[in-house]
Amino acid sequence: MLALDLRQWRRIRKGEKGLYLAIYAVTLGFFVCAVFRYSPPMPTQFFIHKVSPWVFSVVHPEEINDKEAGGS
C-alpha cells in the first residue's frame, strides 16, 4: 500500500497525494457507513428510479399507452 510506504509519499506530487487521500477518505466513509448499517444514497438508484422510466417513455411511447389502455 502506498499509504504505508512513507518514502513513496515524499516522492509523489501534491496532486497525487490529494487524490490518494480523497480515495482513502471515501473508502473510510463507506466503511463507517457499513459499520453503522447506514445505506448512503447512490447515483445509480436515482437513475434507475427517476431517469430510466422517463427515457423509456420517450423512446417507447406506444408501449406505455398500450399498458394504460389495458393492452397486452
- Helix amount, in percent? over 70%
Strand content is under 5%
Number of strands: 0
Unreliable segments (pLDDT under 50, ≥5 consecutive)? none
Structural class: mainly alpha
Helices and strands in order, then pairings?
Blueprint: H1 6-11, H2 14-35, H3 43-59, H4 61-69
Helix pairs in contact: 3-4
Overview in brief:
With 72 residues, the chain is mainly α. It has helices spanning 6-11, 14-35, 43-59, 61-69.
Plain-language structure description:
With 72 residues, this protein is mainly α. The chain contains four helices and no strands. It has helices at residues 6-11, 14-35, 43-59, 61-69. Helix 3 (43-59) crosses helix 4. 0% of the residues are buried.
Question: What are the defining features of this structure?
Answer:
single chain; 72 residues
